[in-house]
Amino acid sequence: xxxxxxxxxxxxxxxxxxxxxxxxxxxxxxxxxxxxxxxxxxxxxxxxxxxxxxxxxxxxxxxxxxxxxxxxxxxxxxxxxxx
Length: 83
Description:
Number of domains: 1
Oligomer: single chain
Largest sheet: 4 strands, antiparallel
Low-confidence stretches: none
Number of helices: 1
Strand content: over 45%
Helix content: 25-40%
Mean pLDDT: 91
């Protein structure tokens, strides 16, 4: 039996770090970028289709970044689920 994989992603989000939580017209007084937790995009992906699916998600994210800017940037990884 060949191994199966899970494709996961995480996004970079802006977090308000101001102790008073001030926000003016959508801009925080102080903030920083943090990575979210990993979440599943595809599960039970075969080894044969893994590269194609990862390429699809990365190209789709590259397009999102080109349209919406760096705030749409995500990271992707594959995790073996059934060795």
